[in-house]
Amino acid sequence: MKLSNQTLPDLPAAVARPTYDRGALTPGIVHVGLGNFHRAHQAWYLHRLMQDGLAQDWAIIGAGVRAADARMREVLLAQDCLTTLIELAPAAMRAEVVGSMIDYLPVTEGNAPLIATLARPEIRIVALTITEGGYYVDPVSGGLNETHPDIQHDVATPDAPTTVFGAIVAALKARKAAGLGPFTVQSCDNLAGNGDITRNTVVSLARLTDPALADWIDGACSFPNSMVDCIVPATGPKEIGLARDLGIDDAAPVTHENYRQWVIEDDFCAGRPAWEKTGAILTDDVHSYETMKIRILNAGHQVIANVGELLSVETISGCMTHPAVLPFFRKVEREEIAPYVAPVPGMTPAAYVDLIAARFGNPQIHDTTRRVAFDGASRHPGFVLPILRDALASGGSVSGLALVEALWARMCAGTREDGSTIEPNDPQWPALMATSLAARDTPQIWLEQRHLYGDLADDPTFAEAFADWLRRLWNDGCAATISAYAKDPEISKTA
Q1: Confidence band of 491 (pLDDT split at 50, 70, 90)
Q2: Least buried of 13, 158, 214, 366, by fewest C-beta within 10 Å?
Q3: Radius of gyration of the chain (CA)
Q4: Sequence ranges of the domains in the chain
Q5: pLDDT at residue 488 greater than cutoff 80
Q6: Tally: H helices and E strands in the chain
Q7: How far apart are CA 46 and CA 54, in angstroms?
Q8: DSSP H or E run through 101
Q9: How many CB atoms lie within 10 A of CB 454?
């Protein structure tokens, strides 16, 4: 049955669906980046409030700023912006149709429809899932990368920007001029201090063209930090087939694990939905939750994704049953990551490692190593290297973390151990591949990518461990190398 407003009453009885009048919903949120994660996470929390008769004036309008977003717009509008969520527990499956999104803006050069919508007074939150690498952060200074061509374009043509941040600045300029007041900009990406980073990007961009506007944005708008957590694989024929097996013709269904967490700093200048009524945690201490999740889950993904690619293990759950990868994962997590994570209410780092291991091992979640390894040039500096710096500062072992970096370097050579080709999997792939091949004979060349490693390249403890591991990977192979680390209690001290 083709998914639409009209067919909702006729869906199979086992499929939950909106009980609220979608025609009576009014918008309050524009969300930029309508990927699977948003539709399984933020849109679901709002949908659950609407099921309880709440938040009827907070419906979501979708938006995108990339040409590729136009395809998702076409697909979702054809099914009235409805999404089938399929929850995959290890031993069960259930489906629910989510209806909290009501429109998707045209994707155009210059972003005029987006700017005009953000300037409407009823829009009180602008939310983002644009990937960790989408915030134009200079990797050395930590500030706005003012030399990036997209940023230079937005400075030169602020009324027809190419970035979401340029659109936000243009809309806030219009709102300020019309006396409409500010809105909250809410990042939902996996970045430590995502709200602080978003504030810096928006305010810094505004300052390049209108310092007075920048001061107003900085003082009037809110940029709450948050932590988001739910494993959501990409959609392909298998996922579309699962929806069809349930009796639903959905061109863009979303599968997800049976776990969600959303921790939010309660800082919203123009109001917000009552997300805490449906399980979100509102707190002033987002950082502790965020650090636990980013270090143990997100860095944990990087621990296994590259070796999985190299060993031709297609999925993360497959990595968790691999006889060499699982012991490697557990040793790095327990000995070199968990020591640099503080507990949060109800959860210790050790217990969270066990939770993540179970979640990664869910055989029903077809989360590919390729997806998780994508954009390592953003994910390793964001997830792994901060832990490595803490370990070096405290005198702890960094052998396993150095091996994680060596595995990434080896993966970027572009071939698996069975001789098959790894297709480009990073926006910086050509440069990474060339550096990886050069580093085979001279490992230090990889660490001299200062835009990634900074002064870590100069630390002899890390550099020597990295070089040794990279040579072992090329000479002995991945399985033997990670097994040597996992099995020998002294190797973490002597590598």
Answers
A1: low
A2: 13
A3: 23
A4: 8-284, 287-494
A5: no
A6: 24, 11
A7: 9
A8: strand 101-104
A9: 15
Is residue 20's pLDDT more than 70? yes
Q: What tokens does 354 get?
A: 């066990």
In this predicted structure, what is the pLDDT of residue 489? Answer: 59
Q: How many CA atoms lie within 13 A of 209 on its CB side?
A: 19
Token output for 206: 């505004």
Classify strands 261-264 and 226-229 as parallel, antiparallel or unpaired: antiparallel
CATH for the 8-284 domain, from 3.30.70.270, 3.40.50.720, 3.40.190.10, 3.30.70.260: 3.40.50.720
Helix 385-394 to helix 460-476 angle (10° resolution) is: 120
- Alpha helices by DSSP H, 186-248: 194-207, 211-220, 237-245
Torsional sign, CA 202, 207, 208, 213? positive
Residue 281 pairs in a beta bridge with 263
User: What single string gives the DSSP state of each residue in 446-476?
Assistant: HHT-HHHHGGGGG-HHHHHHHHHHHHHHHHH
CATH class name, domain 287-494 = mainly alpha
Q: Are strands 184-187 and 101-104 parallel, antiparallel or unpaired?
A: unpaired
Average pLDDT on 102-131 reads 97
pLDDT of residue 225: 97
Token digits for 386? 């901060």
Taking 3-state DSSP, the helix, strand and coil percentages for the chain, each rounded to the nearest 5, stand at 50, 15, 35
From first CA to last CA, the distance across the chain in angstroms is 59
Asked if residues 376 and 427 have their Cβ atoms less than 8 Å apart, the reply is no
* pLDDT tens-digit map of 59-112: 999 999 998 899 999 999 999 999 999 999 999 999 999 999 999 999 999 999
Amino acid at 141: S
| CA-to-CA dists, residue 267 to 120, 128, 137, 223, 224, angstroms | 21, 16, 23, 7, 5
List, for residues 353-396, the tens digit of each pLDDT value: 999 999 999 999 999 999 999 999 999 999 999 999 999 999 99
Please tell me the predicted confidence (pLDDT) of residue 490.
Answer: 56
Residue 190 near residue 298 (C-beta atoms within 8 A): yes
* 114-147 per-residue burial string, b: 16 or more CB within 10 A, e: under 16: bbebbbbeebbbbbbbbbbbbbbbebeeeebbee
Q: Please tell me the distance from the alpha carbon of residue 242 to that of residue 249, in angstroms, as a whole number.
A: 10
Element housing 60 (H / E): strand 59-63
3-state class of 9 per DSSP?
Answer: helix
Place of tokens 């994962």: 329
C-alpha of 153 from chain center: 26
Tokens of 13: 């009885």
